[in-house]
Amino acid sequence: MTTTSEHPDPRVPVALLGLGPMGHALSAAFLAAGHPVTVWNRTPGKAAGLVARGATAAGSVAQAVRAGRVVVVCLRDDKAVRAAVVPADADWTGRVLVNLTSGEPAQAREMARWAAGRGAGYLDGAVLTPTPTIGTPAAAVLYSGSGEVFAAVRETMAALGGTAAYVGDDPGTAAGYEVALLDVFATAVNGVVHAFALASAEGIAPQRFAAFATGIGGLLPEMITRFGEQLAAGRFPGDRSTIASAAAGIGHVVNAAAGHGIDTGMLTAARRTVDRAVAQGHGADGLARLAEVLRRGGPSVPERPAVSSG
């Protein structure tokens, strides 16, 4: 695929490898935008609905790649991507591989090297919104890799709808955003379910607890923005809350949960970070300082056992 055209064909042929829920949604969006679409899936039988809407089912990865100028892959993980594309006797010359499979930054960089060795352009992408948003204004996808390649396929990828944000020429950057955002989600969900378990152990009805918990959740957007500003500036004022005060609060939660036999693994990990920050002399700093403590590490501190009140 030529990557220097200022006026790319709006009906670029697209090949889609992988027809899980997200792959199916991506294929449907390309079809709705008028692109010739060829689809392949390791397990046969998932393409029928798309074929009825105008897609072509490929019998092999090589056949799908041959049909597409932009080849979008959306599989379970990096291992599945490699199992599909590496053994395939496909001609990648002049094509663009857009990898929308969730993975790790190092894996994205390695796939970019693999694609370059076969004459293909490469973009790594992170889909940040669920399948129902694909093809709508609510969709959000991050892309990283060659800026020239992104410019060449931007109009084609616009079929997915919403926001298409280019985040840099390092192929691993989009995956870096994704894993960090998944970190927010995973730890937040763990915190929510852990809190419900603790509240229930204390005899608090879930619905009544939820009414107050949503208020706590409402504090996060402003806090995230403020932490970002403080980390960028390297200044961590403790005017709202300090690490030392957080140490006391986490201790109360750990002790209360342990008293009910509720797992405290994530909380004790958080307390270790807080204790390390205090040991490094940051007790009077604001909580954003903890991100630097985590990234830079430092001497560990003795584990504090939970104190049961029972």
TrEMBL record:
A UniProt-annotated Pfam family: NAD_binding_2
Keywords: Oxidoreductase
Cytoplasm keyword on record: no
Location of the 6-phosphogluconate dehydrogenase NADP-binding domain: 14-168
InterPro entries given in the database record: 6-PGluconate_DH-like_C_sf (IPR008927), 6PGD_dom2 (IPR013328), 6PGDH_NADP-bd (IPR006115), HIBADH-related (IPR015815), HIBADH-related_NP60_sf (IPR051265), NAD(P)-bd_dom_sf (IPR036291), RedAm-like_C (IPR048666)
Classification via SUPFAM superfamilies: 6-phosphogluconate dehydrogenase C-terminal domain-like, NAD(P)-binding Rossmann-fold domains
Recorded superkingdom: Bacteria
Keyword Mitochondrion attributed: no
Domain annotation NADPH-dependent reductive aminase-like C-terminal: ranges: 170-296
Family designation: Belongs to the HIBADH-related family.
Entry protein name: NAD(P)-dependent oxidoreductase
